[in-house]
Amino acid sequence: MALQAWGQLPAAPAAQELRWADRDADLPETGSSLLAYGNGRSYGDVCLNSGATLLHTRSMDRFIDFDEASGTLICEAGVLLADILALFVPRGWFLPVTPGTRFVTLGGAIANDVHGKNHHAAGSFGRHIRRFELLRSDGERRVCSPAENPELFAATVGGLGLTGLITWVEISLKPVAGPMISVENTRFNGLDEFFAINAAAEAAHEYTVAWIDCLAAKPRGIFVAGDHATADGRCAETGKPLGIPFTPPLSLINGVSLRAFNQAYYHRPLAAETKMSYAPFFHPLDGVLHWNRIYGKQGFYQYQFVLPFAARAALDDILRSIASSGQGSFLAVLKTFGNLPSPGLLSFPMPGVSLALDFPNRGAVTRALFDRLDAIVVAAGGRLYAAKDARMSGEFFRRSYPQIDAFMRFVDPRFSSDFARRVFM
Amino acid sequence: MHRILIIGATSAIAEATARLWAARGEALFLVGRNTARLDAIAADLRVRGAASVGCFAMDACDTPAHAAMLEAAESAMGGLDVALIAHGSLPDQKACESSVEKALHEIDINGLSVVALATRLGEKFAAQGRGSLAVIGSVAGDRGRQSNYVYGAAKGMVSLFLQGLRNRLAKQGIQVLTIKPGFVDTPMTATFSKGALWAKPEAIAQGIVRAIDRNKDEVYLPAFWWLIMTIIRHVPERIFKRLSL
Q1: Across the interface, which of A21, A22, A87 has its CB nearest the CB of B48?
Q2: Inter-chain residue contact A75 with B47, CB threshold 8 Å
Q3: A21 contacts B43? CB cut-off 8 A
Q4: For chain B, what percentages of helix, strand and coil (3-state, to nearest 5) are there?
Q5: Backbone angles phi, psi at B115, to 5 degrees
Q6: Which of these CATH numbers, 3.90.1520.10, 3.40.1800.10, 3.40.50.720, 3.90.79.10, describes B3-240?
Q7: CA distance B165 to B171
Q8: Which of A171, B22, B154, B225 has the fewest CB neighbours in a 10 Å radius?
Q9: Are residues A208 and A83 in the same domain?
Q10: Same-domain pairing of A168 and A186
């Protein structure tokens, strides 16, 4: 079976896949273009290279050095964030930013400049990368940091793997008292309520995020705020995750199951204040391995956009369009981004409000909905997240990522991807 | 804390096993041919929590070097509790069929060098009256098959040798463990197309650590290989010789 991205949308296979374990090795001689493939958790096609070469970087997963005094970690780019957390949380250190899954490689987290529930306080992942080494196809190895080769650093953070191969990374971990997170849950009804709760929560809490029921006539949801608990509670026991063993022929997500789920999820018994281990707080879906399979053999799309704060009306429009389409998902995540600038030329986060939704792939019907949503997002000055995308137009991308021309100067001539060829090459 | 010697430490199974030991805070001593790769693995194991990690560059077929290596390991760790012999190569069976030199070389790497090391380690553990010797053999050593009988013969020799050594040292409470992995997805088998029988080195590593902890004599990894090999061993030779295994 051909390698897929997380969305499991049909894609043509790579011509060859090479295992990449030695950070000091030269790039292979191939007749086709190269692309690093980490753990395959980007949704659309940024991690695919149909008909060309993929370099599997998961075997390049060695730690190199850790400074106990400063929390500075150096390790190879194929190390998973999960590996870092498993090793360092018991020693009192945490990732400065963690996305919604810990099963991504460090290289992938940089290439997509991922964000987390603390964006308002800490900015995107790339802000916490001190240095990395980039192997270019001319054989040169360039150490990049905000001070050294700063332009190549800015192009590579969020650069979708197109500027070369990241071999090792130096990242600052942050000290924490223990593995537990103090959590506050608040139900809200309507977006006005969301924004009011959010403004207060961002001032008081390190982590904030909201789940919304995108099928309800008036958007409602649950706002979650969290902080690292000061007193060390029980040890974090993540347990053995459940798994979806195979892909069903049809999506298990449809209008009926979705409405039922959202209704139940919104009304479930909810503790106003609680404590939980970091894993279910940051990575709730990591508890179900291969959850992407529930969408069936046709796969699914995730649609994640960000809108400037001023475009509040556009957000209402989008939610109305989704509700009236009857399509949508139980995974609708609403989060505001703060003012801390993203370091990458193609970084997704910008000040504003971001919403991520999963849609089963129903072909033309689904893509027509996306086209309607695109029109609203583009008019409002927003943009889509490349790591989640499998279908946006080149025109939309160019318009919403104005630094694309500056970025193009740093693309390595031997690197390419399905996304690059589809959208801007 | 245990003081553990790993020979063939750059192999995928050995490295995965070393990571588990590092997480437990054991002291490790790594032996392999490539100094740069040993150093990279050692740095990784230190970050992962190993009490100490030493390295020694040696070709396992260089029998005269074995004594100096053992001495270096003991002095670096202040003694020796566990030894894992994990080096090996997967020969090109076709090439070995027509080349005496190649066939004997593979027997040397996978068989004789292991016998030499196990002899020294057996003496060492016998003298100190305790210790665990674990050796990675193979299911291929259970019966000669046309597809890889040179490798199988070397692994079979190791298996029998360890059986005898175990019989001898058991009286002193010394563990001699024969590990028989089935198909493992490692760089050594990179060119094979992989099916459901293939296991990850991480899974094999867990089995190795558990078998040593539990003082086992022989272990198939994953365990279902015991059943497969029991069947394969019992097919009568007059039928077996006609099969294309």
Answers
A1: A87
A2: yes
A3: no
A4: 55, 15, 30
A5: -60, -45
A6: 3.40.50.720
A7: 11
A8: B225
A9: no
A10: no
Contacts of A23 in chain B (CB under 8 A): 40
Contacts of A87 in chain B (CB under 8 A): 23, 47-49
Q: How far is B88 from chain A (nearest CA, A)?
A: 19
Domain definitions of chain B by residue range: 3-240
Residues in chain B, how many?
A: 245
Spatial neighbors of A256 by CB under 8 A, at least 6 apart, are none
Assess if residue A407 is contained within a domain.
no
Structure-derived torsion over alpha carbons of residues A305, A310, A314, A318, reported in degrees to the nearest 10:
40
Q: What is the DSSP letter of A415?
A: B
Structure tokens belonging to residue A325 = 């389409």
CA–CA gap between residue A27 and residue A216 (Å, rounded)? 52
Domain enclosing residue A68, as ranges: 63-176
Structural domain includes residue A20? no
pLDDT in tens, B182-209: 988 887 777 677 777 888 999 999 999 9
CA angle A255, A257, A262 (to 5 degrees): 95
Q: Out of A117, A151, A176, pick the residue that ends a domain.
A: A176
Query: Which of A154, A176, A198 lies at the terminal end of a domain, its last residue?
Result: A176
The pair of structure tokens assigned to A177 is: 């008292």
pTM: 0.92
Is pLDDT of A3 > 80?
Answer: no
Question: In this structure, is residue A3 part of a structural domain?
Answer: no
What residues of B are in contact with residue A66 (Cβ under 8 Å)? 47
ipTM score assigned to the predicted complex: 0.89
Q: Indicate if A242 and A352 belong to the same structural domain.
A: yes
**A284 and A319 share one domain:** yes
Distance CA A143, CA A155 (A): 13
Distances, alpha carbon A275 to alpha carbons A117, A178, A271, A279, B189, in Å: 17, 12, 10, 12, 46
pLDDT tens across B223-233, in order? Answer: 999 999 999 99
Q: How close, in Å, is residue A17 to chain B by CA atoms?
A: 11
Cβ pair A65:B43 closer than 8 A: yes
| CATH number, domain containing residue A315 | 3.30.70.2520
* Residues of chain B numbered 210-239 and touching chain A (CB < 8 Å): none
A49-101 pLDDT tens trace: 999 999 999 999 999 999 999 999 999 999 999 999 999 999 999 999 999 99
B41 touches chain A (CB under 8 A): yes
Strands A93-94 and A174-175: what pairing?
antiparallel
